[in-house]
């Protein structure tokens, strides 16, 4: 009976491997070309403050998907294994996948944090934020690689054997590091996934639910309030329609980013939780074959969910690009209307008639 269960487990292992193989090939074949196209479409927006972050996220996803795709292809065609031994491939692939994943998550945090500062401290952000976003990305990349240096040290190739014959191999911790693997995986999952997504969602929710910034550099006032003599110092005149439109665009963009971050969290969470549970309860190598079969099925299911996040990346990048395009269009319109605005403010200073107060179409966009 034990031998029958073991044979059944090996057949399920083979089926899961083939299912994941075709899933990875399908997702990467669909996503990689679209990411390249989105990267090309982003070139006209090189002056945007979010352009380096978006390029970093796209490049990180390209590296991650290319590494996974190359790994599964090499396992099935046995091309790279004739050049490099299996344990080297396991170490290299684990390091590239973990480093790129950590870099992507923390780049999202950096981009959302910058938007948070721009919303709550619009004037101070221009003086205190780093002038070179590329330098920030380089720091994130170096820190991500440093945090994942454990992968090439502890990860190796492990064989799944049936008697004396090796039936399959997979990448796992070296037995020498088995005692400390729980702490390593828990810390790595927290740094790579749990902490950055908590910060990302927190920053988005704080911007979304806060109606008034903590420190307002100037007061926005509509023409209706101005006609009612509700004046104050450091005010800026805007049309009521423009003010409501800008607020609506900002809330819509933040909601879209919050939904995207939450959806990514949902798709990543089962995979990270299962891997942490495997380290603490040894589900993959459990003595009961039934437990190992359940883990095998769950591992395939959560990894497919994990793969579904990658087709969403170009969609999210496209919407961010649309926001940048609209902001650039608004900026050009404001620049074109600047002479008329100057004459309008001169009329405002010369006239005491409230009915002749001109409206400015200028409104700061967070």
Descriptive keywords:
transmembrane helix, mainly alpha, 366 residues, disordered C terminus, two-stranded antiparallel sheet, transmembrane, Rhopdopsin 7-helix transmembrane proteins
Describe this entry's structure for a reader.
It is a single chain. The protein is mainly alpha-helical. The protein has a single domain (2-327), classed as Rhopdopsin 7-helix transmembrane proteins (Up-down Bundle). The chain has helices at 2-41, 51-77, 86-120, 124-128, 133-147, 150-154, 181-209, 223-227, 240-281, 289-307, 309-336, 338-350; strands spanning 155-162, 165-173, 219-222, 235-238. Strands 1-2 form a two-stranded antiparallel ribbon. Helix 2 (51-77) packs antiparallel against helix 11. The longest helix is centred in the last third of the chain and has 42 residues, at 240-281. Residues 212-218 and 337-366 have low confidence and may be disordered. Keywords: Membrane, Transmembrane, Transmembrane helix. This is G_PROTEIN_RECEP_F1_2 domain-containing protein.
Brief write-up:
This protein has 366 residues and is mainly alpha-helical.
Tally of contiguous helical segments: 12
Strand content: 5-15%
Count of individual domains: 1
Query: Within the CATH hierarchy, at the fold level, what is the topology?
Result: Rhopdopsin 7-helix transmembrane proteins
SSE order in H/E notation?
HHHHHHEEHEHEHHHH
Distance between the termini: 66 Å
Main sheet properties: 2 strands, antiparallel
Judging by the overall fold, what is the CATH architecture? Up-down Bundle
Low-pLDDT stretches are 212-218, 337-366
Beta strands, count: 4
Helix content: over 70%
CATH class: Mainly Alpha
Q: What is the 3D form? A: elongated
CATH superfamily: Rhodopsin 7-helix transmembrane proteins
What is the gyration radius calculated from CA atoms?
27 Å
Main-sheet strand order equals 1-2
Structural class designation: mainly alpha
| Average pLDDT taken over every residue | 77
Protein name: G_PROTEIN_RECEP_F1_2 domain-containing protein
Domain G-protein coupled receptors family 1 profile: 32-317
Subcellular location: Membrane
Keywords: Membrane, Transmembrane, Transmembrane helix
